[in-house]
Amino acid sequence: MRPELVLSPQGIVIAIVFAAAVGTVMIWMFRVPRPVSEDVAKARRSLDIARLILVPTIGAAYSQRGVELACRLAQEQGAEILLVYIVEVPRTLPLGAVLPEAEQEAEEALKTASEVVMLHNLPVDTYVQRAREAGDGIISAAKDRRADLIVMGIASRSHASHLWGRTADALLHRAPCEVIFDKLPE
């Protein structure tokens, strides 16, 4: 004697949901991406390598804009933000000289920049670097921490005698990684 086959409504619903889930996964797995040229693929992959983005900050509006730009880039790639404040020590003083005003400015600038990063829920680290010139300090910090990218906000008008200023000029010529400048509009 054969047992009678009884269809349960819950069993039917579970079977349909299971079949739909398996079908969706299969469609997703076998979906072929749109073909792109090798140059386009290289350009897209080249930005996927940034895991640590260094952002020099001095607390000015253009610096904070650089922090915001770095955060938006970091969100896309899951990168960490390293905020760096460079204390420029005059050549007449030793690098380890006590500079309480500069240390206070560094602390305030890094605190404000950290708040911007925390709004994006990104990992952030802060670092104070002493150097004779800001460009050398940024380059040293990028090498020490093995930064993949430097994002720097610059003022709309440079007070230096040439277009970029000595810090941006140093980064353009000697940075150990990719550099992005963000110029605040007038």
Domain count: the total is 1
Overall morphology: elongated
Number of helices: 6
Into which percentage range does the β-strand content fall? 15-25%
Helical coverage, percent range = 40-55%
CATH architecture title:
3-Layer(aba) Sandwich
What is the terminal separation in angstroms?
90 Å
Uncertain regions spanning at least 5 consecutive residues:
159-163
- What average pLDDT do the residues reach? 87
Q: Count the E strands.
A: 5
The fold-level CATH name is: Rossmann fold
Kindly provide the radius of gyration, computed on alpha-carbon positions and rounded to a whole number of angstroms. Answer: 26 Å
What is the H/E string?
A: HHEHEHEHEHE
Keywords:
Rossmann fold, 6 helices, five-stranded parallel sheet, elongated, 186 residues, alpha/beta
Describe the structure.
This protein is an alpha/beta fold and 186 residues long. The chain has one domain: 3-Layer(aba) Sandwich (Rossmann fold). It has six helices and five strands; from the N terminus they run H-H-E-H-E-H-E-H-E-H-E. It has helices spanning 9-29, 38-46, 61-77, 100-119, 134-145, 166-174; strands at residues 52-56, 80-88, 124-131, 149-154, 178-183. The chain has a five-stranded parallel sheet, with helices on both faces. Helix 6 links the parallel strand 4 and strand 5 (178-183). Helix 3 crosses helix 4 and helix 5 runs parallel beside helix 6 (166-174). The longest helix has 21 residues, at 9-29. The model is unreliable at 159-163 (pLDDT under 50).
